[in-house]
Amino acid sequence: MNEVIKPTGTTLPANFIDKLASGIAESRAKTILPGGGKPFLRLLKNEQWVWGPSNEEMQPGSRWVINIVSLAHGWNCWVDSEMKGEVMASMADPKPDCPPPVAGVPYKEARSFELKCLDGDDAGTEVLYKCNSLSGIRAIDGLLAQIQRQLATPQGRLHPCPVITFSSSWYDHPKFGRVTTPIYDLVGWSDMDGNVAGEGEPPSPPPGWAANARLEPADEPAKAAKGTKAAKAAKAPLEPVEPAPTIRAHAGQRRRPVAR
After folding, report:
1. Measuring CA to CA, which residue among 143, 138, 148, 87 is closest to residue 115?
2. Are the CB atoms for 251 and 57 separated by under 8 Å?
3. From the first residue on, what is the mean pLDDT of each consecutive set of 10 residues in the chain (260 residues)?
4. CA distance 190 to 245
5. Comparing C-alpha atoms, which of 121, 40, 117 is closest to residue 86?
6. In DSSP terms, which residues pair with 40 in a beta bridge?
7. Residue 52: which region, alpha, beta or left (left: phi > 0; alpha: psi -120 to 50)?
8. Which among 109, 120, 116, 119 has a CA at the least distance from the CA of 51?
9. Contact 178, 45 (CB under 8 A)
10. How many CB atoms are located within 10 Å of the residue 58 CB?
């Protein structure tokens, strides 16, 4: 049993103060505060990415940079669409132990990170993304693998933050019906201040790669003369791994894609 610390008059023992100060510092360093004051980014069932309580729609094609310092892993528990518990820690630290179930509902793996929009109508917007779905965890795992590779290179020391665009796909689940899945396409790397490497040049993501890790790297397309059909095809966006529906429903007015 832990010893009960009793103050002498109005003074706490010096060793307890030192121990408490150290414990507070460690706790704060390993705790990711829910929300962090930033609106939540979510993927709706209609395949639209939105954030905040008013479901502000993401502008198609906008680029977002991930703050790698905010990468966190852990667990959360939802019961009847209400979060009953969450334990998260920085990915610089070991993943916390899984807590016991709440009302018989087990905790699920969770990942989170903060992002900032780099261009388009939402440039400067900061959001927090949390995910505990199986497809979302898999997509983030593919993204983390790319971050690992980047950090192992000299360039990764200067530009460690992935710059991504968002899209989505879906599949028919035998029990739950239509299930929407996130896709993050890597389009570049940024430093901690949001300066993209090679800015002013066409983005050069790894050919054939999407963060859901279901595409194998393809051979780099041969260079073509500027303005030819081959050159335009080389700049075409990656196709989603899973077929997207022909008609998509949207929660609000759809924004125009970001012009490049």
Report:
1. 143
2. yes
3. 48 68 62 64 91 92 94 92 90 93 93 95 95 89 92 90 92 79 92 86 43 35 41 36 31 60
4. 33
5. 40
6. 128
7. left
8. 116
9. yes
10. 22
Q: ∠220-225-230 over CA atoms, to 5°?
A: 55
User: 240 CB contacts (<8 Å, ≥6 apart)?
Assistant: 167, 168, 169, 183, 210
Residue 133: DSSP 8-state: S
Q: Are 212 and 241 in contact (CB under 8 A)?
A: yes
Instruction: Give the three-class secondary structure for 182.
Output: strand
Closest CA to 44 of 256, 258, 252: 252
Q: Is 38 left (phi over 0), alpha (psi -120 to 50) or beta?
A: beta
Count CB-CB contacts under 10 A for residue 72.
22
Residue 47, CB half-sphere, CA atoms under 13 Å: how many?
19
For 123, the token pair is: 């440039």
